[in-house]
User: Fold these one by one.
Assistant:
Number 1:
Amino acid sequence: MARRTRSPIHEQAKVNAADSRIDGPLLRLTGRMQSAECVLQAAMEKLAAAEQRLSERPRTKRSGRRPAWYSAAVRRERQAGTALDKIYKAIARARACTRSGLGIKVRVLAKLYGEVLDQGPDQSDMVSVMIHSVLKDVSG
C-alpha cells in the first residue's frame, strides 16, 4: 500500500489538522493539481522528443500529413494541459475557509504567476511584491 504524503503546497502553507478537515476539497484539488502538472510535464517531454524525431526525418518523408505518433504526442500534451486548466478553475471556484486554505490559494496563484517563493519578490514588479506580502499575511 502506498504511503500518502503531504504535497509541497500543503507543507509550505502549514496546514493543521483542523484546517485540513475544513478545507478538504481545496486540499484534494491541490493534490490533483500537482499530479496533473507531472502528467503535463511528461507529455511535454514526449512531445519535444517527437518534434526532435520529426525534424530528423529525411526531407522526402516530411511532406504531407504528420505521422500518427507525432499527432498522438500533440493530442496527449493538449489533453494534459486542458485537464490541468480545469483543475486550476476548480481551485479558483473552491472557497478557502481558513488562513491555511487561503495560503494554499495564494501559493497556487504565485506559482501560476511564475514566482519563486524561496526568493524575495521582484521589487520592480508590484504584483510580485503584493503576492509575497499577502503570503506573509496568511502564513504568519
Note: The CA atoms of residues 41 and 77 lie 9 Å apart.
Number 2:
Amino acid sequence: MSARMSKKKLRPMGEITADLEILLEEMTDPEGQDLQWGEILFLIFSWLSVHAQHARETYTEDGSHPEFKYGPR
C-alpha cells in the first residue's frame, strides 16, 4: 500500500466502481475519446505493470504468474 493510501479511510468497493464507471463511460463515448476495449485494457494493464507489481498473483506451486491475453484465439 502506498503512503498516501495508508492514512485514507477505506472506501467501499461499490463507491470505487461507481467512480470507475464514470471514467469508463468517458473513455468509450463515441463523441469523445471513443476508445475500444483493447485500448482501455492495455492502459489499465500497463498501469498495473508499472505501479502495482505488489498486487500481482503468484502461483504457490511454481512461483509463476497468470498470463493476461486479449486478442484472437
Note: The longest helix spans residues 13-28.
